[in-house]
Amino acid sequence: MKTPIQEDSEFESLLREKLKPSTPPWESNREVLEEFFLKEDHELKRERRKHFLKHTWIGGLGMAAVLLLAFSFYFGNESVTEPETQGVTASVSPVQFGPKSQKIARTRPQPMEYEAIGSRNQLMEVKDKGWRRIDDDKVVREFKYEYLDTVDMINREDGSVIRVQVPREEIVNFSYHVI
Amino acid sequence: MTEINEDYPMSELEKWIEVHGARLFLYARQQTQTHADAQDVYQEALIQVIKRCKKEKLRFVPPIRDFFVSIKCRAIDLYRQQKRRQAREDKSAETEKVIQGGDWFVSKIEKDEVSQHLIEALSELPEEQKEVVLLKIWGEQTFQAIGEITRVSANTAASRYRYALTQLKSLVNLQAI
Description:
The structure holds two protein chains of two kinds.
Chain A: H1 4-18, H2 26-37, H3 42-76, E1 84-85, E2 88-89, E3 91-95, E4 114-133, E5 139-155, E6 161-175
Antiparallel strand pairs in A: 1-2, 3-6, 4-5, 5-6
Chain B: H1 10-31, H2 35-55, H3 64-89, H4 113-124, H5 127-138, H6 143-150, H7 154-171
Helix pairs in contact in B: 1-2, 1-3, 1-5, 2-3, 3-6, 4-7, 5-7, 6-7
């Protein structure tokens, strides 16, 4: 005596065995492969570039704010050490910006004497870190953007200018969605 | 999941299509009125998903479920287009009734009686049940995935499948088999 599950299973096997789906026409597959390998999709490239620029801009603004805070903290302490947060190392160097800049070597400037006169976020490298599974069935592509953030600061009293440079890394995950 | 390397070698994709092409085309055929429409839908759906791979530099061909979803979306679009066109042309004559299932499966020179019965029984099923049966038996999808493709819950998909199987078995004279 067969159980209903056994019957179902046998019937499924019968369907699979007796009815084989017909294969798609050869021309269709050829079209798919041609589309994939031969045609360039410029629109998609533009989209990707736009997305990338958006991230750079937002990240740059955020980093400039962090840099300013770090800088005021650095000059607010008597015992000055290299600022180091989460593996990111900042470098501060005087910039030759006129004859008075030599004073930096002799006297340490007091807090609040410097003000930012310009900043720049330079993208150094983009690394493709490959696919990562973050949930059970969600897969994302991870990209690591490496920037060098630069802030130039001036001391209005003696005209000296210093440049703060901080390397920065940003991980961006691109998730995959079906259209 | 099929892995494809950075240069997307054609052989990998060809292999993938060889394995899954038939089941995807069967689903496209069920979702459309004619063989030609199925061909268009199948082709466009695959291109759409593969374009996505290209855009995001995928190392893996996405799950087959995504292709089923894409086929369904394209079939719905096509149906709407055809409906609009038909309304414009104001055709009074009804579309010729096509016996479904005739060209869905591999045709043999001598189709045996059982195969004929099965095809006829399959064509008698309501569309939503037929869809679930195709996805389950030849698409090899889980009820969860079928639910996602057909936009119903997994339970609904499962119960449609059970009804369909019962109906199929009663339509095909199992004793004769």
